[in-house]
């Protein structure tokens, strides 16, 4: 298993700072859009993620449309769909993802909803 520090993420501006901070504390390389370019459009975020081989983390379901309907390529996407946007739940799932599923993050659209994690393979 690859150490968590080897995982590279890009978190869009909808992701809470505490999630970016948590992942950084676990040794992950996290580029948080809210820190560097909060007005960046979604398609540009996907371009950076693809170019830098970063897994996108988002609360924004519009990325599903970009990836599946508009066929914009992505290195991988994690979409949080947690009722009430509870940050503690998102952090718990983020920890599970990096500890138990990191080999499945690249090349997948990961939907975290309720108490489930669903992996959808992306087209290469």
Quick tags:
about 120 residues; alpha/beta; Rossmann fold; six-stranded mixed beta sheet; 5 helices; 6 strands; globular
Task: Please describe what this structure looks like.
Strands 2-1-3-4-5-6 form a six-stranded mixed β-sheet, sandwiched between helices. It has one domain: Rossmann fold (3-Layer(aba) Sandwich), CATH 3.40.50. It contains five helices and six strands, in the order βαβααβαβαββ. It is of the alpha/beta class and 124 residues long. The relative contact order is 0.18.
What percent of residues adopt helix (DSSP H or I)?
25-40%
Number of strands: 6
Query: Helix and strand string, N-terminal first?
Result: EHEHHEHEHEE
Percent strand: 15-25%
Radius of gyration: 13 Å
Structural class call reads: alpha/beta
SS element count, helices: 5
Amino-to-carboxy terminus distance: 23 Å
Q: Describe the sheet with the most strands.
A: 6 strands, mixed
Number of domains: 1
Query: Could you tell me the mean pLDDT?
Result: 91
At CATH's second level, what is the architecture? Answer: 3-Layer(aba) Sandwich
CATH class: Alpha Beta
